[in-house]
Design a protein that fits this description.
Layout lengths: L5 H14 L3 H6 L16 H13 L1 H8 L2 H4 L4 H5 L10 H4 L24 H4 L4 H8 L6 H8 L1 H4 L5 H12 L5 E2 L2 E2 L32 H5 L1 H5 L9 H7 L1 H9 L23 H5 L40 H12 L5 H35 L12 H22 L3 H29 L20 H4 L3
Antiparallel strand pairs: 1-2
Helix pairs in contact: 3-4, 15-16, 19-20, 19-21, 20-21
Length: 464
């Protein structure tokens, strides 16, 4: 038998390629993309300059960074703070350091534009999914929500500084630059809905404080308790009263707080959930999300409890049934079906009773008083019944609903529905007295420290 020529071999290979099933090449392209993670061990001289300078000038900041996962991955100051020359938030004051002769790294060769404010847009270079999720959450959009529902802002019933030191500390400010520096009326601030100069919303350091950016810190309830506390939204107090909080207080030092993102597992890394475990962390088949609007089936902060998609101030683009199923899956990591299902029966009943027995009758009466000119709604809170109605839903009503949701009986009853009853009775008694005598309510002539700006911020609502 003669050996096949080179030409013959090439012809045979061509024929074989033609008879390969048509879907094979297409299937080869269907393989999942290989994930890549690379650590650069070198760093530019400018990054070395940042580190060495801050090691001396701000040793606490340096120590925090040095102990972080960022430092372990060789993420330096420049990776987060470097800016372009034309950026609005470039720190001009920082340039002054490069002309100092008393600092080894204060030389022109190390000069580089930096921004003091690190924004979610900056973080998105390495954490795109987390920033995308966060951007659609109630946290990121909380300034818009606040201006749509808050009478203190819309009626100017507090001062601008009272807002900055109180409301805006958690909700966020709208950052501004004045004479090349961050405007002190808007800075410092790490509010969850802060409007940044690059157009992004929020601050990742609200929960992952700089410069450690610890996942452990964000997983602990104390991170949420910085803002979610007090008479109107006492989630941290409610959590501490619950069985979940009791177990955390007892066994929290045994939890594996530093498990990698997406791997933190009930029964393995922790015995009872924290706020993050229920609302954000991955659990079972439920994926991790930085959108705290997910997994909610009722909007319990609203005056009248509605589904999240029906919350007029910020309609969620979610299906409450889908989100409730997610939360149930989280619960089912530790509880049985009957426990979880019956818990939601109780919660739904609490919502129904609050809506029908307390809020709706009181709101009907309030509207009637305004219609009869017995209350004046040009300036909210300068009449006692306006305060009574506001606190019925904003204080006791929220506590009753949130206490019922998070298994805190004292907040559901004594701080909740019990106080709702007394507030409701006082409001209705006062309302009927005004109607009986057809006499307008007494107005406080010297309500203190009002005059806050009532202009809805153009950065949120557009220039009109």
């Amino acid at each position: 038998m003669k050996c096949m020529s080179l030409k013959g071999w090439l012809l045979l290979i061509a024929v074989m390629l033609l008879v390969v099933p048509a879907g094979t090449a297409k299937a080869a392209n269907n393989y999942p993309k290989m994930k890549e993670y690379r650590i650069e061990r070198s760093m530019p001289d400018q990054a070395v300059a940042c580190i060495e300078c801050h090691r001396v000038t701000t040793p606490g900041l340096f120590a925090d960074w040095a102990a972080s996962r960022h430092a372990s991955a060789n993420i330096t100051c420049l990776d987060c703070h470097q800016a372009a020359d034309e950026d609005a938030d470039v720190s001009k004051a920082h340039f002054e350091y490069y002309s100092r002769g008393d600092m080894p790294y204060g030389k022109a060769q190390y000069k580089i534009p930096v921004a003091a404010v690190v924004t979610p847009k900056d973080c998105s270079r390495c954490h795109p999914d987390e920033v995308t999720q966060y951007s659609r959450s109630k946290h990121a959009n909380t300034i818009e929500i606040m201006w749509k529902i808050d009478p203190w802002l819309n009626k100017g019933m507090n001062s601008d500084n009272e807002r900055k030191t109180g409301c805006y500390y958690c909700h966020g400010t709208i950052l501004k630059i004045e004479n090349g520096k961050l405007d002190s009326s808007t800075w410092p601030n790490v509010g969850v809905g802060r409007v940044n100069l690059d157009g992004s919303l929020g601050s990742c350091t609200s929960c992952h404080t700089r410069h450690r950016f610890s996942v452990m810190e964000a997983r602990k309830p104390e991170a949420c308790g910085q803002c979610h506390l007090g008479p109107d939204h006492p989630q941290i107090e409610i959590y501490k009263e619950s069985k979940h909080g009791d177990i955390y207080d007892t066994f929290g030092d045994q939890y594996n707080w530093n498990a990698a993102g997406g791997t933190w597992t009930a029964g393995v890394d922790y015995r009872a959930p924290t706020c993050a475990a229920c609302h954000m962390s991955g659990s079972g088949k439920v994926m991790t999300s930085h959108d705290v609007t997910e997994r909610l089936s009722w909007e319990t902060q609203a005056p009248l409890t509605v589904r999240p998609s029906e919350f007029a101030a910020f309609p969620a683009k979610t299906d409450w049934k889908v989100e409730r199923a997610k939360m149930k899956d989280v619960c089912l990591q530790c509880h049985g079906n009957a426990w979880v299902d019956d818990f939601y029966v109780d919660f739904d009943k609490a919502v129904e009773e609050y809506n029908e027995k307390y809020y709706k009758p009181a709101k009907t009466m309030l509207d009637d008083l305004y219609a009869k000119k017995l209350l004046d709604n040009t300036t909210v809170f300068d009449e006692e019944l306006e305060v009574e109605f506001y606190e019925l839903w904003h204080h006791e009503g929220r506590r009753a609903r949130m206490g019922s949701m998070m298994m805190a009986p004292d907040y559901a009853w004594w701080h909740g529905f019990y106080e709702c009853k007394h507030r409701f009775n006082r409001f209705m008694e006062g309302a009927r007295e005004l109607i009986k005598h057809n006499t307008p309510a007494y107005r406080y002539p010297d309500f203190p420290n009002t005059g806050g700006d009532t202009t809805k911020p153009p950065a949120i609502f557009g220039k009109k």
